[in-house]
Write a structure and sequence with these properties.
Keywords: Signal. InterPro entries: Bact_solute-bd_prot1 (IPR050490), SBP (IPR006059), TAT_signal (IPR006311). The protein is an alpha/beta fold. About 40% of the residues lie in helices and about 15% in strands. The strands form two sheets. Strands 1, 2, 3, 4, 9, 10 and 11 form a seven-stranded mixed sheet that branches. The protein has a four-stranded mixed sheet with strand order 6-7-5-8. The longest helix is centred in the middle third of the chain and has 15 residues.
């Protein structure tokens, strides 16, 4: 895996990179055509445009923007999970797109610091868009130097979805709120041949659930320290959280072979009724079939005795997708202003909520009426306690090693000490 950009690495790579060496590296990706010098063509690089949640609404919005701005063309480049890598390669070749739509995670944490993207704070204020953004989202996108990395856009709630019909079939009368109740429910579900909690133990979904469970005994400040430093052994709360996770895992709470599953496996198991429970962000909740959503409840993750929280926990983040401006984009800033004013318009934002079930980092009174589980997650309020999403605190070079450590952690029989060692090793490899 190529390491994330650092100022030294970025400059070193850029100094020896010529068009002859850069273009072959780009030949398999859409960023090859990103270097459009036409001032009337805005180049946007996004994960929206194929099967990603919100893609149809995004493409329809682009068509509407083009109709309203006939003299301005928009070229939409699409990549999936490799978007950050593709963008970095195009930036090194000075052929990067003008706007990038991606989340604040892993490689992107370093972009503004190394000049791969620009601070957008002044643009936000000059264009009068600050009041459109939720204050908590602005805080999340602002780095330690006070720079606003991107224009916030998508957010997400991340509760736990419970299939009531399967719980009823197994004789589980109530949604579990304690670890003991969850273990008892898992045993009853297994006795009926139903998988209990499904999760992608081999990717980011399992990583986030593990982090959520570890935080059972951590305050927000303690969690921030643990995930910034990787010191899982020096924190009593982190050690207790890992022991709680191991207790749940070895009691059979997670589906068999969870350590090899992915987010797609998790979604399939839940949506087909093979498993009764999943930790699901908004985009996954939006995919739950209507027939299943009618008998699905959303709630928090059950607590253990002595927890630092007084209510079951959920994750929540406002950094799912933002609009980043590249150095090339500053040459077309008038076009970008038109584009972002359009994307921030209340009617455009409402379409994402109504048509795609997206949570937004912007102010809106629109409710996801066609996505009842997304709306239910928005209404959880004080019924749950929010724990820290560690993405912006984990060093970028530890992100992928942490997923490997997550798979190890979900392997039944791995003791708490070995789980701690695996998590800490991910930071040492950074």
């Amino acid at each position: 895996m190529r390491p994330p950009l650092t100022r030294r690495g970025f400059l070193a790579a850029g100094s020896g990179l010529t068009a002859a060496t850069a273009l072959p590296a780009l030949s398999g990706c859409s960023a090859l055509v990103a270097a459009d010098s036409d001032p009337d063509t805005l180049v946007v690089h996004s994960q929206l445009g194929t099967t990603a949640p919100g893609s149809p609404t995004y493409l329809a919005s682009l068509d509407r923007f083009r109709r309203e701005n006939p003299g301005l063309k928009v070229k939409n480049l699409v990549n999936g999970d490799d978007l950050a890598q593709v963008y970095e390669t195009s930036r090194l070749a000075r052929k990067e797109p003008d706007v990038v739509m991606v989340n604040l995670y892993d490689k992107t944490l370093a972009w503004t610091d190394v000049g791969a993207t620009v601070d957008v704070k002044d643009y936000l204020d000059d264009w009068g868009l600050r009041e459109r953004v939720l204050p908590v989202a602005l805080d999340a996108w602002t780095d330690g130097e006070g720079r606003l990395r991107a224009f916030p856009y998508f957010a997400t709630n991340w509760p736990v979805a419970y299939n009531r019909a399967l719980l009823d079939k197994a004789g589980v009368d109530e949604i579990p709120v304690t670890g003991d109740q969850l273990i008892a429910a898992a045993r009853r579900l297994r006795a009926k041949g139903i998988g209990p909690v499904t999760t992608g133990g081999n990717d980011w979904t399992g990583q986030k659930l593990l982090a959520q469970i570890i935080q059972t005994f951590l305050t927000e400040d303690e969690a921030r320290h643990v995930y910034s430093t990787g010191d899982f052994s020096g924190s009593r709360g982190a050690k207790d959280g890992i022991e709680y996770f191991v207790e749940l895992r070895d009691a059979g709470v997670f589906v068999d072979k969870a350590q090899g599953l992915t987010s797609d496996s998790m979604t399939t198991q839940f949506n087909t009724g093979a498993a009764a429970i999943q930790s699901a962000m908004s985009s996954a909740l939006a995919k739950v079939p209507e027939s299943l959503a009618r008998h699905t409840d959303v709630a928090g993750w059950p607590l253990a005795e002595g927890a630092a929280h007084d209510r079951p926990t959920i994750l929540r983040t406002y950094t799912l997708i933002g609009f980043w401006i590249s150095p090339n984009g500053t040459k077309k800033i008038d076009a970008i202003e038109k584009f972002l004013r359009f994307m921030y318009r209340p009617d455009t934002v409402s379409r994402f909520i109504k048509e795609s079930g997206r949570d937004m980092a912007l102010r809106s009174d629109t409710v996801s009426t066609d996505f009842p589980l997304v709306a239910a997650a928005q209404r959880l309020g004080d019924d749950v306690s929010q724990v820290l999403l560690p993405d912006v605190y984990v060093p970028p070079t530890a992100t992928q090693p942490l997923i490997t450590a997550t798979s190890t952690s979900f392997t039944r029989g791995t003791g708490a000490a070995k789980v701690r060692a695996a998590l800490e090793a991910a930071y040492r490899s950074a």
